Amino acid sequence: MRRIIVLFINIVLVLTIVFWLISFNHRIDMYWNGVVVSSNTVFLFIIIFTIIIIFLILQRIYLFFRNYPKKIKGNMEVARYKNAFSAIVRAITAIASNDNRELITQSKRIDNYVKDNPIGLILRSEVAKKEKNFKMAEDSYNKMLLNSDTKILGLKGLLEQNLKLQDYHHAMIYAEQIYRINPKLEWIYDTMIQIIIKTKNWYKMIDINNDAQNKKIISKDQKNKSNSIAMYEIGLIKESASFRESIKLISDAHIARSNFPPFVKKLLHLLIEDNQISKAKKILFKAWSDNPHPSFFEETIKISKNENIKPIDLINKLTKNNTDHYDSIIFKVKANIIENNWEEAKKIIKPILSNRPTKTVCKLMADIEHGITGNMQRANSWINRSTLGDPEKIWVCKITGIKQEEWASVNQGGIFDSLEWTWPNTGLSDNTMKLDALVPNIIGYN
User: How far apart are CA 328 and CA 217, in angstroms?
Assistant: First the structure.
């Protein structure tokens, strides 16, 4: 309707102009090479008007043939993208419903409609993973690297592939690229740490921790704890090649994580081996004052031997400020057993005897009974009783609850810095992380 009105207005306008020109009609004579050509203004205007109309018609024909192929192509593009969009929706639906066959079909449709489209590449990589076609997956990931919107996904895909192949060197390269692009990704720091655990590149851990703390990805306390473990592990490696350097590294670890029992125990061992008895004794007394631990007993005995004093005399001095502490009592009992002071040992252990004494207490009582009476039957009754005793502190993974006799920087389940000295089966601590939240699951945790 609108076009008809516009056409009517144009016709009226043209007729108005024509009649207006006719009203000014008069004769026109033109001379050319002695020839006189007579006409009038109306005829002249008709000729000019005709030329303009012909020009406009020719222009219209030219524009039609120039633009029509583009219009056809544009319509084809629109149709192709509509079909691609429909295939994308179906592919996403297939992913949600775990319909792998439909996902593969729709992914191929998308690839036919739009080559190397970012969404198509993502879906194609999913298809490759479903079909376990690693070559196709790698090709998709490499193409994703060319697009800034999908670069991180491409790097993550290549990272996962190399982790599955246990190529930790290349996995670390891709992880570091992701970290440089977006260090705030919640999984990338943990992933790099888990790769370092596999490669034991502890120097790299220190560098990453320092940078992560500067970027406020981890706290200063977390950085210090993690770096202390890295220094401790480097110190263990250096022990056979450079004893003094090993002492320096373990000492630095001890300073960064004050009086942490495994660090204290190792440092005491190294200092005693290096005949630095006074320094070892000072560290032992400070550690015991802050955090008594049963693992210090062997080094305590070594210090007493080096100082030519009885173990019980050194232990009495060591425990004078926390004499009623469970481990202080155990230390004094053990020292008296070493010196065959059976009655004194029995007297000291009495306060921690209960209806269900711990395994350690039962074993000590077995030694005491055998030492006093020589009666193996009474001694064995204490050993049998140890299986029903109260639990005592042990190294427990704060994530899985798995128990270990000895501390390690990486627990038996492969998790870094997860062991706490606590009672078993007491539940997880407040800062426990869920296993399914750890990105390092992609390198083997289930």
Answer: 40
As given in the structure block, the two tokens for residue 338 are 């070493």
How far, in Å, CA of 246 to CA of 253, rounded? 11
Among the listed residues 343, 341, 365, the one whose alpha carbon sits nearest the alpha carbon of residue 353: 365
Q: Could you tell me if residue 362 is inside a domain?
A: no
* Cβ atoms 406, 398 nearer than 8 A: no
In the block, which residue shows the tokens 């583009």?
70
Task: Work out the burial of residue 355: count CB atoms within 10 Å of its CB; fewer than 13 is exposed, 13-18 middle, 19 or more buried.
Answer: exposed
Q: What is the pLDDT of residue 338?
A: 95
pLDDT digits (tens, 9 = 90+) for 205-262: 999 999 999 999 999 999 999 999 999 999 999 998 889 999 999 999 999 999 999 9
Residue 174, pLDDT > 60, answer yes
Given 47, 81, 115, the domain boundary residue is 81
Distance CA 385, CA 295 (A): 23
**Cβ contacts of residue 60 below 8 Å, gap of 6+?**
none
For 169: left if phi > 0, alpha if psi spans -120 to 50, otherwise beta; the answer is alpha
What is the DSSP track for 344-392? HHHHHHGGG--SS--HHHHHHHHHHHHHHH--HHHHHHHHHHGGGSPP-
Instruction: Give the residue from 60, 81, 102 where a domain finishes.
Output: 81
- Domain with 420 in it: 392-446
Q: What is the pLDDT of residues 79-119, one digit of tens each?
A: 777 777 787 777 778 777 777 777 777 777 766 766 667 77
Is residue 204 scored above 90 in pLDDT? yes
Query: Which pLDDT does position 20 carry in this prediction?
Result: 67
